[in-house]
Write a structure and sequence with these properties.
heterodimer, A: about 290 residues, mainly alpha, B: about 325 residues, MetI-like fold, 2 domains, 14 helices, about 65% helix, about 0% strand
Amino acid sequence: MTANVSVLARKKRGFLWTSTLTYGVALAVAGVSIGPVIYAILGGFRSNAQINEHPAGLPNPWIWSTYGSALTRATFWNAAGNSLVIALTTTLGVTALGVCAAFVLSRYRFRGREGLYTFFVLGLLFPATAGILPLFLLLGNLGLTNSYFGVILPQIAFGLPITIVILRPFLTAIPGELEDASAIDGASKLGFFWRVLLPLSKPALVTVAVLAFVGSWNSYALPLLILQDASLHTLPVAVQEATRAQYTQDTAAILAFTSLSMLPALLFFMFAERQIVGGLQGAVKG
Amino acid sequence: MTSVTQTVDPADRAIARPAGPRPVQVSKASRERRKWFEIIGLTAPAFIIFSSFVLLPIGFAAYYSLFRWNGVGWPHEFRGLYYYFGEYGALRDPVFRSSLRNTGIVLVGSLLLQGPFALAIALLLNRKFRGRAVFRLLVFVPYVLAEVTVGVIFSQMLQYGGPANSLLNSLGINTIDWLGNTHVVIWTLLIVLTWKYTGFALILFLAGLANVPDELSEAAAIDGASWWQIQRHITLPLLGPTIRTWVFLSMIGSLQVFDVVWVIASRAVRGLGAGSVIATYMVDNGYTSHLWGLGNAVAVILFIISFVTALLCQRFLLRRDVDGALSGRVS
């Protein structure tokens, strides 16, 4: 009896103390996490004079024209369009090729299956960055530099390992009875794949697609090297370009442009947060 | 469902299939052939693209690194291992050595800064509290942003007359030249990278903690264990696999860091070796300066370092947890 009471008492005391600490820490961490982001967004609403005088202040007055001109300037929409095309195609490619490979690796039995899986998994160990130089040369030989596919194909290639690693356990877990049932109904294995397995795998497919999309959207090094024409630049590259060129001292414009480029990623993340985090956690659990 | 074009072999249909693991197919020749056709057909695209754009380049890099070449046509000035060990080779270049050192600082620093910090916060926040979902969202934002975006924002914030310094001044601390001082730059980079990736570690750890059963800690509490004792003897060990996985991911990422460094450390600073990492050295010398032999040599070096690190991780860190993950036992 005494033991229980003392435990309860300690729990009660502990709870109050830890509760304040919990909220305090949570607030601090969240604040630091979005602090710079808020700075960038607000910075776009200030004039350069304001920024130089009070580097860490609030907009006073609020200036809308910087964002306005950033939005009307063609560079932004051009770059966003390029990013979109590349990201969508990459996502489609990775998801399609990945699910086909994962399907074979999970629902067929054949000699060399584990070897093939390890082959793809090794790709996770491959540093993507180490390959961009020779990749640039290789793409040059193939005539793919300065083209969308010069970026899309390598991105698909680099995205395949994580895609297969995430999809394979998922596809494995779908019961064999479903396959038997569809066989009894007269479907071939491929028919089962197309009509039963794929619809059932939607959650995993969405996760994989989201990861591929975000990865492609944020990619910088590869587009930087491959896409030389300014008209083909993706958003991250355009952002970096904007900070050099004519805008070195125009902090407000830089911040406005950068904030705009953040928006798609942030919005996308808000809608797909559960998939991204869940997918990562699932991949972590192996 | 549209009509099926294939009929099932009546022999299959008639056999009552047992529940559970499918029996190994006794295959007729044509079924076997068709099976292989499907296997190859479905995996070939992935295999080809993967091999061509991931594996092949590394092979080419090794080849190109043996030549002095300006990138046009095909290399023919054979130099052997000159770009690795020669007079102007990578390993003799003090700037490259700085790059190696800086990459090492990033690697170790990331582990030491992000890990314990994220762990401590995760332990403290491992309970239901109001706004937990919003918190998770906000904390993950840095990870979702492009590294370039992060780099641009911070290089604005850390400018000599910028908000970071004005904040320091208001606290009575001297202004720091975050971006220009060659001794400070690498630590600046470390801070930015910590900001970007701690949230990621935090989310992973929180997820791992969610798998630790409450009953264990409650039982220990009833037995009189303090909060710290519980963490040390129950929670942390159970969090082991997650932590080890994160260490692996963090190390591989640190070795390849490029975008943030490229944006924050200017070309001049990098040229002095102060803010250079392996990847930026590679691009600065290979792509920008057209020293393709040197650039590719560095690519090969980076590859070897990463690969060896990954293998060591697999062997010593992850072996106990990965049982089955690489072999992928299929039910």
